[in-house]
């Protein structure tokens, strides 16, 4: 039982019961404000009938031509509201927005060890598109799965033909830089 | 090409290469080197604006403000137009909060380069920073003329809107109307020319219509072709809002049925749906003369039943909606039982279906306030009976256990534990503890490090129960045991933040700052959480027993605030850059909340007081640190009416009896008291700064400056006594401590009880008399001496009392005692600093005076006043006395014993299946934390005393 509504700045003061969770990162303000300012419709919050924050999803839409896609930056659900299908609800919402924005696919990164999350994404129709080596840095670096789901615009499901070779961080960065340069040329 | 461009742009690539080292050094914080590099460059090219601006920035970073200022001013006066110089200058002005200077800068630049899009855009943003909407509008239109981009057009539209709803004229209804109408016309024109392009533009148009109450037009636009094309993601809630405004309940009702059929777990939909059904009841029907009014509710009920019956997977939505309908019908005395059924049975059904979800407690709690206390407690018993768990039968599986937990939480919320005698409560605690241990060993074995233990809630509840007992008995034993239990839980489930938050609270209650700090660090509170959660730790640190230790925590918090303060306007600029009209007001309000955070302001004040208390250098060093704080006694920089309460009080979970918990009332009460505390603290700081200023710095020593400083001091002294007078009349009650999760008492009563008022008041008189050399100085010195004796005696007495309490209960009064000791020490430390400054000044004066007296014997007015030399002797005497009393304090603090902990602990977990060594290390660790915390505190306070004794030894 949920109220879905856009995430607002004021929610930053109230999201502690969600963000105290060890898998949820609390970022610097500029990170949140950047998302709120640039992709407001991609930052959505689920609220319980008692007004508590149950969880939220944060994402963006970007990319050129057939790489135009929705991306899930953060998805988190409070420990009190797990096993209620909330993550699926939030993911559906983001996919719906991406459909409306005519995105070709939606993608996300997940820790290779986070089996619970990987299974959930699989159940929602995501496939493991490729592995990114040492994407998560920390005491022990960890690989990430880049998971994808095609949207209706990608009629031939070209976006979800998996890569067999793992990708290094350097290659990923180059890819992003390349994309950015193209964007700048287009402006 | 203008002369300036010729001069500056000779070879931009070359200059860029030469400037690079300056930029690079600034970036890595090597400011000294950056300054050298810029000076080197200026030797060759003395007129290179950008190098001069960078030199100004380097000086600014090095804290050489006056040089920096003149350097920047000189460049600005040349009215530069090149981008890099302008960027550097506006960066500096942003840093110095001189935002209007940036406006001027770009105004000049635009004047010289009319029609330059980039410069105009910068000018626009510079107006955004100072919230000058009128100027924004003008520049946006200029921009649009230069480059007919939609963004610029809508920048001007939103600027017009803001003049109507936020600007200085927004309070005048006619003006508001005119601005909004103008904004609408501007967009209408654009639509007519088929130039509307984006979703945010469509949003803005809808917003403008709504602001003018033009709901019908908004409805039509929202459902029109253009909006569907541009704004397919328009939230459906916008439709609800408009239909409600239009009173079209029928349509709303139908729309929601449609939506709910597709999406059956949406509380926002159900809520609106039920409301629309009730509204339909009220609407006079045209078709029928005497319609069956309840028909609407019956069909609402039927709809919910249908959803329930046709759903494959059980969802909470329709069940909760049915309960909501029941509740709302009862609220208007309608026969809910007859239509929907017995309330208790509905709740029990809900519990049977969803009791195994941890959110079930929150859900059921929604409906408890609408029934009587008697019914609540009966219901609670029924739910417990449903669980079928007794002393002899344990939960069969995880789900069963979660149900039990839910029933127990509800029964506490219903007040079932309130009337139990202590021995029952103790038995209940034991049962909870055993349930925790059973659940942990049976269902919680393969826990991931990131998961909470499934039986943890038992232990959390147990801690609350133990607090209740402690509170009734006024003894710490039970609560200390609860703390040990929580620490045990934390070893098993390292990520349970509820456990950390409760432990943090208990450690603070018992004055164990080290334990509190550990829990706080463990919570990993950072960024904006430093604001919203600061109340749980940082806000409790001032006067808690340590100074240096607390200072670190203020530092981390202030770092976040100063950073976000610097960035706050760039966030707003970002919304313009991306044309996110839907977020602009929100961002503007957020900026206000953040910059006026009470946590921010009070943390800054406490950090300053802490620095003055702890300074340990020689007089000159101390004075220069004081100067660096740039306190302006005459100026009250706090926007008292704007202070914002950003605390997330809901973050700490509770199941306390609903009828005894009024979170909003507690929020207001505690906030009001915190604001009063801040009044005292900031005024004390300003008063103290006035003492110093009167005796330090050349401008205040004689003549006009001195008169002004004296006047300021007198004014502040009056405010000080006035404030205390008012606070005593206000008769604030200490915050209620009924439940564990309640906030700890504020420092207000401490500050009223301890001799702050008279101490500072008498000190003010002493400073004034010393300055003028008034005849009553001797008397005033004696008064001050009495104050010092009083404080010293209070200090010594508190320690004796604390040691005596150790015989009965080492923890119950610990925090209170530590607070008193810290407060006494704070007063004496400030006094010591002041005396050292007074002494220094009088010494200097009497030396110069003697010389003067020798050359010209102008002694006419000396008779009426006490000579500087005598004053110097008096200050010496005061210092001697202070030193003596500080030594007495030091002697007392050496006798301060670490808290004696409850004794029978080693067996408290005997009935749990704990390995003896686990138990031993657990209790050992907690005890060691208390001991170490005390020792750290005593060491720190003794060091402080030593510094002050040294300071007073002249």
TrEMBL record, chain A:
The record's section on PROSITE patterns has: GNAT (PS51186)
Q: Does the keyword Plastid apply?
A: no
Q: Which Gene3D superfamilies match?
A: 3.40.630.30
Class of enzymatic activity (EC top level): transferase
Which reaction does this chain catalyze? N-terminal L-methionyl-L-glutaminyl-[protein] + acetyl-CoA = N-terminal N(alpha)-acetyl-L-methionyl-L-glutaminyl-[protein] + CoA + H(+); N-terminal L-methionyl-L-aspartyl-[protein] + acetyl-CoA = N-terminal N(alpha)-acetyl-L-methionyl-L-aspartyl-[protein] + CoA + H(+); N-terminal L-methionyl-L-glutamyl-[protein] + acetyl-CoA = N-terminal N(alpha)-acetyl-L-methionyl-L-glutamyl-[protein] + CoA + H(+); N-terminal L-methionyl-L-asparaginyl-[protein] + acetyl-CoA = N-terminal N(alpha)-acetyl-L-methionyl-L-asparaginyl-[protein] + CoA + H(+)
One GO cellular component assignment for this chain's record is:
NatB complex
EC number from the UniProt entry: 2.3.1.254
Asked if Metal-binding is a keyword of the record, the answer is: no
Q: Where is this protein primarily located?
A: cytoplasm
Which SUPFAM superfamilies does its entry note?
Acyl-CoA N-acyltransferases (Nat)
Query: Which segments constitute the N-acetyltransferase domain?
Result: 2-152
Record function comment? Catalytic subunit of the NatB complex which catalyzes acetylation of the N-terminal methionine residues of peptides beginning with Met-Asp, Met-Glu, Met-Asn and Met-Gln. Proteins with cell cycle functions are overrepresented in the pool of NatB substrates. Required for maintaining the structure and function of actomyosin fibers and for proper cellular migration.
- Name of the protein in question: N-alpha-acetyltransferase 20
Species in which this protein is naturally found = Drosophila willistoni
Gene (UniProt) = Dwil\GK24995
UniProtKB/TrEMBL annotation, chain B:
Q: Does the keyword Protease apply?
A: no
Question: Organism's domain of life?
Answer: Eukaryota
Q: Which Pfam families does the annotation name?
A: NatB_MDM20
Q: For this UniProt entry, what's an example GO CC term?
A: growth cone lamellipodium
Q: Which GO terms describe its biological process?
A: actin filament depolymerization; activation of immune response; border follicle cell migration; innate immune response; negative regulation of neuron apoptotic process; phagocytosis, engulfment; positive regulation of lamellipodium assembly; sensory neuron axon guidance
Key words of the record: Antimicrobial, Immunity, Innate immunity, Lysosome, TPR repeat
Where does the UniProt entry say this protein principally localizes?
Answer: other
Q: Where in the cell is it found?
A: Lysosome
This molecule's function is given as:
Non-catalytic subunit of the NatB complex which catalyzes acetylation of the N-terminal methionine residues of proteins beginning with Met-Asp or Met-Glu. Has 2 roles in the larval immune response: required both for the phagocytic degradation of internalized bacteria and for the induction of Defensin in the fat body. Within the phagocytic blood cells, has a role in detection of infection and activation of the humoral immune response.
On subunit structure and binding partners, the annotation says:
Component of the N-terminal acetyltransferase B (NatB) complex.
Its family remark reads: Belongs to the MDM20/NAA25 family.
Please report the name of this protein according to its UniProt entry. Answer: Phagocyte signaling-impaired protein
State the organism's lineage.
Eukaryota, Metazoa, Ecdysozoa, Arthropoda, Hexapoda
- Gene coding for it: Dwil\GK22368
């Amino acid at each position: 039982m949920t109220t879905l509504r856009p995430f607002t700045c004021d929610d930053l003061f109230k999201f502690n019961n969600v963000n105290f969770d060890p898998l949820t990162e609390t970022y610097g303000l500029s990170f949140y404000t950047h998302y709120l300012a640039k992709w407001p419709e991609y930052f959505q919050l689920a609220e319980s009938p008692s007004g508590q924050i149950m969880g939220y999803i944060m994402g963006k839409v970007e990319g050129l031509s057939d790489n135009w896609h929705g991306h899930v930056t953060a998805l988190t659900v409070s420990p009190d509201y797990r096993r209620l299908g909330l993550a699926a609800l939030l993911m559906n919402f983001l996919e719906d927005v991406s459909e409306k924005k005519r995105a070709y696919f939606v993608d996300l990164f997940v820790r290779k060890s986070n089996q619970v999350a990987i299974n959930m994404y699989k159940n929602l129709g995501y496939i493991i598109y490729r592995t990114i080596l040492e994407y998560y840095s920390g005491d022990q670096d960890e690989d990430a799965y880049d998971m994808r789901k095609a949207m209706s615009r990608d009629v031939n499901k070209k976006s979800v033909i998996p890569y067999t070779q793992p990708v290094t961080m350097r290659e990923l960065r180059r890819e992003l830089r390349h994309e950015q340069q193209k964007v700048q040329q287009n402006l | 090409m203008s002369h300036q461009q010729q001069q500056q742009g000779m070879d931009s690539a070359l200059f860029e290469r030469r400037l690079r080292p300056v930029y690079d050094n600034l970036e890595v914080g090597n400011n000294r080197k950056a300054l050298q590099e810029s000076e080197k460059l200026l030797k060759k090219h003395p007129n290179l604006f950008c190098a001069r601006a960078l030199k100004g920035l380097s000086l600014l970073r090095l804290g050489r403000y006056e040089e920096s200022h003149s350097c920047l001013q000189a460049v600005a006066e040349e009215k530069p137009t090149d981008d890099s110089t302008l960027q550097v200058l506006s960066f500096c002005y942003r840093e110095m909060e001189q935002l209007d200077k940036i406006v001027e800068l770009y105004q000049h630049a635009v004047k010289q380069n009319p029609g330059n899009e980039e410069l105009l855009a910068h000018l626009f943003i510079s107006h955004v920073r100072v919230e000058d909407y009128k100027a924004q509008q003008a520049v946006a239109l200029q921009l649009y003329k230069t480059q007919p981009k939609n963004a610029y057009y809508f920048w001007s539209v939103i600027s017009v809107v803001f003049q109507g709803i936020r600007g200085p004229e927004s309070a005048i209804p006619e003006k508001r109307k005119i601005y909004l109408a103008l904004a609408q016309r501007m967009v209408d024109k654009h639509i007519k020319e088929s130039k509307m392009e984006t979703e945010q533009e469509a949003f803005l148009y809808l917003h403008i219509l709504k602001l003018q109450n033009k709901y019908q037009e908004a409805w039509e636009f929202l459902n029109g072709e253009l909006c569907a094309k541009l704004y397919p993601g328009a939230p459906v809630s916008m439709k609800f809002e408009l239909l409600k405004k239009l009173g079209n309940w029928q349509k709303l009702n139908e729309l929601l049925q449609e939506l709910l059929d597709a999406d059956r777990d949406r509380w926002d939909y159900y809520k609106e749906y039920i409301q629309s059904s009730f509204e339909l009841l009220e609407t006079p029907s045209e078709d029928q003369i005497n319609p069956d009014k309840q028909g609407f509710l019956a069909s609402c009920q039927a709809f919910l039943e249908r959803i329930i019956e046709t759903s494959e997977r059980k969802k909470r939505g329709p069940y909760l909606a049915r309960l909501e309908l029941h509740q709302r019908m009862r609220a208007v005395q309608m026969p809910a039982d007859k239509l929907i059924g017995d309330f208790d049975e509905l709740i029990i059904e809900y519990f049977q279906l969803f009791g195994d979800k941890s959110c079930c407690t929150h859900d059921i709690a929604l409906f408890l306030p609408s029934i009587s206390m008697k019914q609540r407690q009966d219901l609670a018993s029924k739910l417990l009976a449903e669980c079928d768990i007794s002393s002899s039968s344990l939960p069969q599986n995880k789900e069963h256990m979660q149900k039990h937990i839910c029933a127990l939480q509800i029964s506490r919320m219903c007040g079932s534990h309130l009337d139990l005698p202590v021995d029952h409560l103790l038995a209940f605690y034991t049962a909870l503890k055993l349930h925790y241990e059973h659940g942990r060993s049976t269902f919680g074995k393969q826990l991931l490090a990131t998961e909470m233990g499934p039986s943890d809630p038992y232990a959390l509840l147990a801690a609350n129960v133990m607090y209740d007992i402690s509170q009734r008995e006024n003894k710490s034993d039970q609560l200390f045991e609860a703390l040990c239990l929580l620490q045990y839980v934390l070893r098993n489930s390292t990520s349970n933040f509820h456990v950390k938050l409760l432990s943090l609270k208990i450690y603070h209650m018992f004055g164990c700052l080290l334990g509190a700090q550990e829990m706080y660090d463990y919570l990993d509170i950072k960024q904006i959480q430093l604001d919203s959660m600061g109340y749980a730790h940082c806000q409790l640190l001032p006067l808690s027993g340590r100074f240096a230790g607390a200072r670190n925590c203020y530092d981390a918090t202030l770092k976040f605030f100063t950073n976000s303060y610097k960035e706050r306007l760039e966030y707003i600029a970002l919304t313009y850059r991306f044309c996110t009209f839907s977020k602009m007001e929100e961002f503007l309000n957020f900026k206000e909340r953040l910059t006026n955070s009470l946590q921010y302001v009070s943390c800054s004040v406490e950090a300053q007081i802490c620095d003055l208390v702890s300074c340990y250098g020689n007089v000159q060093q101390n004075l220069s640190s004081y100067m660096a704080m740039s306190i302006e006694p005459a100026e009250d920089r706090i926007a008292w009416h704007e202070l914002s309460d950003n605390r997330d009080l809901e973050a700490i979970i509770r199941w306390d009896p609903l009828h005894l918990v009024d979170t909003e009332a507690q929020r207001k009460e505690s906030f009001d008291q915190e604001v009063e505390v801040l009044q005292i603290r900031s005024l004390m700081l300003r008063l103290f700064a006035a003492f110093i200023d009167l005796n330090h710095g050349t401008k205040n020593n004689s003549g006009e400056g001195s008169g002004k400083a004296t006047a300021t001091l007198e004014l502040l002294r009056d405010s000080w006594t006035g404030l205390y007078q008012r606070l005593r009349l206000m008769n604030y009650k200490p915050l209620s401590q009924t439940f564990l999760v309640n906030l700890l008492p504020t420092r207000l009563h401490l500050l009223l009880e301890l001799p702050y008022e008279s101490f500072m008041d008498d000190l003010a008189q002493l400073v004034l008399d010393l300055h003028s050399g008034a005849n009553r100085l001797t008397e005033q010195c004696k008064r001050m001496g009495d104050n010092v004796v009083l404080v010293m005696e209070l200090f010594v007495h508190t320690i004796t009392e604390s040691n005596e309490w150790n015989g009965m209960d080492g923890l119950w009064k610990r925090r209170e005692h530590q607070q008193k000791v810290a407060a006494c020490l704070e007063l004496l430390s400030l006094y010591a600093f002041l005396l050292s400054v007074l002494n220094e000044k009088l010494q200097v004066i009497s030396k110069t005076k003697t010389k003067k007296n020798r050359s010209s014997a102008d002694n006419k007015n000396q008779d009426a006043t006490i000579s500087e030399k005598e004053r110097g002797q008096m200050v010496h005497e005061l210092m001697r006395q202070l030193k003596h009393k500080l030594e007495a304090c030091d002697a007392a603090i050496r006798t301060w014993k670490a808290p004696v902990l409850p004794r029978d602990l080693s067996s408290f977990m005997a009935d749990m299946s704990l390995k003896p060594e686990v138990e031993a290390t657990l209790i050992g660790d907690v005890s060691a934390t208390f001991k170490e915390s005390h020792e750290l505190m005593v060491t720190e306070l003794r060091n402080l005393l030593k510094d002050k004794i040294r300071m007073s030894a002249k």
